């Protein structure tokens, strides 16, 4: 059955967004996403939600997946000129096999996630034209850690 949901959408196009945010689509990460956006003061932003967040820009993923995510980031840059690109990874992420993939060791997991994020940032620095600043974001039970 067809359904109509009335909603007024502001169709004015922002010349520039505050951020392009690569975030994991994990449902546990959605409330903290909104909190992050509010705390950072981002009004307009391009959310790119996919399993593992920034994982696919790192060496932990395949070249095909990296190219697919990179194409989305490039599209955000060309269409909306984000001031910042935020790359996120989080604790207990299914895309990495959850915490058990790190022997249930939170410190070991955190160090690996930092490596993932640093690799992702380096990939963008090496391949993205332009000078966006790149934020690295790690989320765990305690909160959002902007590295
Ligand atoms: Zn995840």
Q: Any overview of this molecule?
A:
This protein is an alpha/beta fold and 147 residues long. The chain has a single domain (19-146), classed as Beta-carbonic Anhydrase, Chain A (3-Layer(aba) Sandwich). The protein has helices spanning 30-40, 63-80, 106-127, and strands at 19-23, 45-49, 84-90, 133-140, 143-146. The chain has a 5-stranded mixed sheet with strand order 2-1-3-4-5, sandwiched between helices. Strand 3 (84-90), helix 3 (106-127) and strand 4 (133-140) form a beta-alpha-beta unit. The chain starts with 18 loop residues before the first strand and ends with a strand. Bound molecules: zinc ion. The site of zinc ion has 7 residues, from loops. Zinc ion binds at residues 24, 26, 52, 90, 93-95.
Describe the protein's topology.
Blueprint: E1 19-23, H1 30-40, E2 45-49, H2 63-80, E3 84-90, H3 106-127, E4 133-140, E5 143-146
Bound molecules: zinc ion.
Zinc ion binds near residues 26 and 90.
Low-pLDDT segments, ≥5 res: none
Write down the overall geometry. Answer: globular
CATH class categorisation: Alpha Beta
Number of helices: 3
Number of strands: 5
> Structural class per helix/strand content?
alpha/beta
Q: What fraction of the residues are assigned to beta strands by DSSP?
A: 15-25%
CATH topology: Beta-carbonic Anhydrase, Chain A
Binned, the helix content reads: 25-40%
Sheet with the most strands, sense and barrel status: 5 strands, mixed
Q: What is the count of distinct domains?
A: 1
**Ions, cofactors and other bound molecules:** zinc ion
């Amino acid at each position: 059955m067809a359904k109509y949901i009335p909603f007024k959408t502001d169709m004015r196009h922002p010349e520039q967004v505050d951020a392009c945010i690569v975030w994991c689509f994990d449902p546990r990460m959605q409330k903290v996403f909104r909190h992050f956006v509010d705390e950072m003061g981002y009004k307009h932003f391009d959310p790119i939600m996919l399993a593992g967040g920034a994982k696919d820009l790192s060496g932990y993923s395949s070249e095909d997946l990296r190219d697919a995510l990179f194409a989305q980031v490039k599209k955000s840059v060309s269409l909306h000129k984000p001031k910042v690109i935020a790359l996120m990874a989080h604790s207990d992420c299914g895309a990495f096999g959850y915490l058990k993939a790190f022997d249930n060791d939170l410190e070991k997991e955190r160090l690996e996630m930092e490596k993932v994020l640093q690799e992702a940032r380096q990939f963008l620095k090496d391949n993205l034209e332009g000078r966006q600043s790149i934020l690295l974001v790690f989320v765990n039970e305690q909160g959002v850690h902007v590295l």
